[in-house]
Write a structure and sequence with these properties.
mainly alpha; 3 helices; about 85% helix; elongated
C-alpha cells in the first residue's frame, strides 16, 4: 500500500482524492489477501478429505465468487476516479463522494463477513485437531 504523506499545499479536493485513493489501495490489498487465504484454506481442507468440511468449502467458494466480484468492481472503480479529478462543481463531487461511501459500506461489510467466517474456520480446524 502506498503511504504518501499529505502535502502542505493540498486543498480540500486534493485531500479527498488522497483519502479515496488510500481507501482503494487498502481495499485492493485486502481483496488480494482474501483471494490467497481462500486458496490456502481450500487446499488445506480438501487435502483432509473430511466430509465435515464440505459446508466450509461451499462457503469458501461463495466468498471466492464474491471476492472476485469486488476485485472487478475495484478495477472499474479505480477507472472512475479519473471522473472525480475532472469534477468542476459541487454536485459532481457530492455524487462521487456518496458513491464512494456506498461502495465503502459494501466492501467493508464483505471484509467483516469474511473475517467472521475465517474465525469459524479456525474454530472448526482447532476443534477437529483437539
Amino acid at each position: 500500500m502506498k503511504n504518501e504523506p499529505i502535502k502542505m499545499h493540498q486543498d480540500q479536493d486534493d485531500l479527498q482524492l488522497f483519502f479515496i485513493n488510500r481507501d482503494v489501495d487498502r481495499w485492493n490489498d485486502e481483496v488480494a489477501s482474501i483471494k490467497e487465504e481462500i486458496i490456502l484454506f481450500t487446499k488445506m481442507l480438501t487435502a483432509n478429505s473430511n466430509k465435515d468440511y464440505s459446508n466450509i468449502l461451499e462457503k469458501l467458494n461463495d466468498f471466492r465468487t464474491e471476492n472476485t466480484r469486488f476485485a472487478e468492481e475495484l478495477i472499474s472503480y479505480t477507472n472512475k476516479l479519473e471522473i472525480l479529478k475532472e469534477c468542476e462543481d459541487l454536485q459532481c463531487e457530492t455524487f462521487f463522494l456518496n458513491t464512494h461511501n456506498d461502495f465503502q459500506d459494501k466492501i467493508e461489510l464483505h471484509f467483516s463477513d469474511y473475517r467472521n467466517f475465517k474465525k469459524n474456520i479456525f474454530l472448526v480446524i482447532n476443534t477437529k485437531n483437539d
